[in-house]
């Protein structure tokens, strides 16, 4: 390593460790070491940790948040009644509407240095909530631990291919950009991908030579197809980490083949931050020391995700209905992580096709087929009512007659499999992703 490069590397690491880890290594020197140990504790030890944190959180919320005091009094519950994880069910579920209507009453009177946040979801009904700065520091260390599951060391360089306009606009701020530099992270605006923009992004990655890449699923998939179709090469990477959208197996394989590395999936949201991360065996583990997750039956093997953020004391979110659903995964991982496993198949409640009052379907096979048609840049299945689906398609210049035949076959399969009266194909210049930059490949107006 050249002397100049070595000095730059050492300076980054000195600043990085002094500013990021100072709070934990001095004020609470055991936090980080405990954080690294918890994934490998026994199930009983993990549940005991969750119960300790939940009891502390509920006691805090009862005494410091007028919303929780009122709701618990209405339900005849006091903090001393919570003596097991099952007792948490005595508290009412918190909805997005509850947060929207009671945001001030949810904030703890002891809260310090609050940061205003907005939900990043694709449901258009944005909610405002608050989190303490210390909460963000903790969540950053939890993120580093998740990345360690993928073999990534804290100081290694990462490139983030992002679609959320909020983070992209923040990155333009010199102070925010400096914070990213301290973490050895680079954020790239990957919205509105054209061939020229994708080529520039790949050239930039070639120059920067990161150890890993983090990105939205739809962005990574677009880049993977572009790399494969143009026989481009990417420098060796330790891992690709997908986030923000569901990662289908076929898309995972496309990304893996193009980037020649393992693909991991990071599941979370702004309200609860890190919820799940895939291990080396490809299983999605719930990060049980960050959030307590309840799975409430919705339909057959599909469950609603109810989350309690164990570390957010500024504005506690207890038994919060995320609006996400998951299919249970009863398989066992061969890795050493003892956190529970859920399926990688996590979607919004509005991402189902409603066949009738008793049947909800996640149309993954259809989505896979649409992903695999050359000439389709983007797409969305929009269910208008119980008998009509609109296929919105964004074409590119690779679309040929044989692709049109495939598309018509898929439309016919949708009509037959989901008992629809009408399936229409509609050409669009773009699919509206909203400020979050997330793609909803399936959206039902019936939810």
Structural summary, described in words:
The chain has 447 residues and is an alpha/beta fold. It has a domain at 353-444: GMP Synthetase, Chain A, domain 3 (2-Layer Sandwich), CATH 3.30.300. The chain is built from 14 helices and 20 strands. The chain has helices at residues 3-20, 22-27, 31-37, 43-64, 66-74, 96-106, 133-149, 165-171, 174-182, 195-208, 217-229, 249-259, 364-371, 401-417, and strands at residues 114-118, 128-132, 158-162, 185-189, 212-216, 239-243, 263-269, 273-278, 284-286, 291-299, 302-309, 320-327, 341-342, 346-348, 353-356, 359-361, 376-385, 388-395, 422-427, 442-444. Strand 15 and strand 16 form a beta hairpin. It is globular. Residues 1-7 and 23-28 have low confidence and may be disordered.
Keywords:
447 residues, GMP Synthetase, Chain A, domain 3, 14 helices, 38% helix, four-stranded antiparallel beta sheet, disordered N terminus, alpha/beta
């Amino acid at each position: 390593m050249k002397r100049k490069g070595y000095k730059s590397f050492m300076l980054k690491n000195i600043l990085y460790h002094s500013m990021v880890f100072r709070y934990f290594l001095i004020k609470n020197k055991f936090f980080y070491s405990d954080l690294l140990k918890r994934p490998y504790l026994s199930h009983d030890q993990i549940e005991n940790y969750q119960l300790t944190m939940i009891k502390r959180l509920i006691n805090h919320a009862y005494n410091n948040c007028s919303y929780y005091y009122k709701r618990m009094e209405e339900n005849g519950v006091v903090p001393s009644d919570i003596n097991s994880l099952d007792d948490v069910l005595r508290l009412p579920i918190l909805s997005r509407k509850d947060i929207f209507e009671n945001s001030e009453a949810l904030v703890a009177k002891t809260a310090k240095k609050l940061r205003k946040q907005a939900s990043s979801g694709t449901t258009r009904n944005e909610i405002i909530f608050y989190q303490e700065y210390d909460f963000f520091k903790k969540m950053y260390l939890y993120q580093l631990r998740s990345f360690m599951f993928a073999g990534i060391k804290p100081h290694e360089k990462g490139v983030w291919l992002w679609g959320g306009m909020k983070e992209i606009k923040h990155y333009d701020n010199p102070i925010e950009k400096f914070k990213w530099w301290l973490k050895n992270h680079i954020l790239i605006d990957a919205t509105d991908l054209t061939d020229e923009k994708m080529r520039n992004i790949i050239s930039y990655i070639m120059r920067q030579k990161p150890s890993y890449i983090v990105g939205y699923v739809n962005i990574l998939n677009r880049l993977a197809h572009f790399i494969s179709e143009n026989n481009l090469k990417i420098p060796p990477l330790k891992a690709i980490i997908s986030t923000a959208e569901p990662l289908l197996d076929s898309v995972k394989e496309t990304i893996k083949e193009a980037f020649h590395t393992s693909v991991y999936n990071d599941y979370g949201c702004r309200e609860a931050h890190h919820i799940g991360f895939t291990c080396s065996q490809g299983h999605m583990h719930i990060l049980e020391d960050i959030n307590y997750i309840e799975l409430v039956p919705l339909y057959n093997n599909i469950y609603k995700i109810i989350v309690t953020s164990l570390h957010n004391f500024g504005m506690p979110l207890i038994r919060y209905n995320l609006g996400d659903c998951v299919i249970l995964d009863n398989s066992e991982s061969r890795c050493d992580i003892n956190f529970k496993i859920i399926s990688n198949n996590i979607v919004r409640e509005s991402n189902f096709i409603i066949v009738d009052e008793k049947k909800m379907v996640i149309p993954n096979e259809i989505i896979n087929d649409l992903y695999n048609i050359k000439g389709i840049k983007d797409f969305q299945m929009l269910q208008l009512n119980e008998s009509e689906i609109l296929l919105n398609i964004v074409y590119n210049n690779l679309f040929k007659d044989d692709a049109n035949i495939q598309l018509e076959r898929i439309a016919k399969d949708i009509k037959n499999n989901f008992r629809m009266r009408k399936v229409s194909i509609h050409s669009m210049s773009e699919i509206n992703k909203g400020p979050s930059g997330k793609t909803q490949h399936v959206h039902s107006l019936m939810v």
